[in-house]
Amino acid sequence: MASRTVLVTGGSAGIGQATCRVFADQGWQVTTTSRKGTGDGAYRWLALDLNDPDSIAHCADQVLEAGVPDVVVHNAGYGLIAPIETADMQAMRDQFQANYFGTLDLAQRLLPAMRQRGTGTQAAVTSIGGRMAFPFFGHYNATKHALEAAFEALHHELRHSDLEVRIIEPGFTQTQFATHRMEKRFREEPFYAQGLQTLAERLETGKTGTDPTVLGQLIYQACVNKTGLRHHAGALAGPLLWARRWLPQRLFLHLIGKTTNP
Ligand SMILES: NC(=O)c1ccc[n+]([C@@H]2O[C@H](COP(=O)([O-])OP(=O)(O)OC[C@H]3O[C@@H](n4cnc5c(N)ncnc54)[C@H](OP(=O)(O)O)[C@@H]3O)[C@@H](O)[C@H]2O)c1
């Protein structure tokens, strides 16, 4: 039997890299992306910049030229740190372009061929920040809430097909995401300086995130062996989702607010 194929966006680092490894170890043919279009591992590399619509179109064409993937994992994305009040408007648009519009653009381009073939899975890597919001991550969290809504709607819309949808919600995972890759684009405003300083210290010292391999394994299991729309793993994901659901709202908001205002 021909080996099955997966497209994982953003395989050059972190959760995407771990996901590629887990699929490859299970004998899958892996295609993955980075903005450079090259990277480590015995995978097929394509260039994909989610901030560039032409790059998305070209990437989708190249994917489909080689065949319809069995599984697509929309993992690529980045985070913007900025107060809601002072965030740079273009930075907010760029954040939505990459994490939401770009991801949906790629999903739309691959879905017709997957529907025509009749089987396949599209998974979106969102965040526990797609189910709640954290101070100074509001714009990032908004993109993940939007992605959660779109993929939940897609799940309903594909009901009369054999196509599957998965939403993967990582908690804090030990990648370069928080330590190096977060964008900070906002107007300086003394009112927010202390909170941002506390957050910066927490991100700098936060070495307790989950190994991304755990997320790679979760994504593989969710896409290949498990049913159900939403899946989570990673530091604090379970407790935070539990607290969101069961704690009185005042207490929950108080606990989250303390992360930058101890
Ligand atoms: N780490 C966490 O704690 C955490 C928690 C919740 C959710 N997540 C989500 O998990 C996913 C992966 O995060 P990670 O922690 O593995 O981050 P990471 O280590 O920074 O890796 C991000 C990957 O996405 C790619 N990427 C970033 N911006 C891109 C863009 N504009 N266009 C195309 N590709 C882009 C990067 O590729 P190049 O830079 O090589 O182009 C890289 O391969 C993200 O969607 C993130 O929001 C992470």
Could you characterize the architecture of this molecule?
This protein has a 7-stranded parallel β-sheet, sandwiched between helices. A two-stranded parallel sheet has the order 5-8. Helix 1 crosses helix 7, helix 2 (53-65) packs parallel to helix 3 (89-117) and helix 3 (89-117) packs parallel to helix 4. It starts with a strand and ends in a 5-residue tail after the last helix. The protein has 9 helices and 9 strands. The chain has a single domain (5-257), classed as Rossmann fold. With 262 residues, the protein is of the alpha/beta class. The chain is globular. It binds NADP nicotinamide-adenine-dinucleotide phosphate.
User: Average pLDDT across residues?
Assistant: 95
Task: Output the CATH homologous superfamily.
Answer: NAD(P)-binding Rossmann-like Domain
Question: What is the H/E string?
Answer: EHEEHEEHEHEHEHHEHH
In this entry the ligands are:
NADP nicotinamide-adenine-dinucleotide phosphate
Number of domains: 1
Output the strand order for the largest sheet.
Answer: 3-2-1-4-6-7-9
How much helical structure, as a percent, in the residues?
Answer: 40-55%
Q: Can you tell me the CATH class?
A: Alpha Beta
Beta-strand percent range: 15-25%
Structural class: alpha/beta
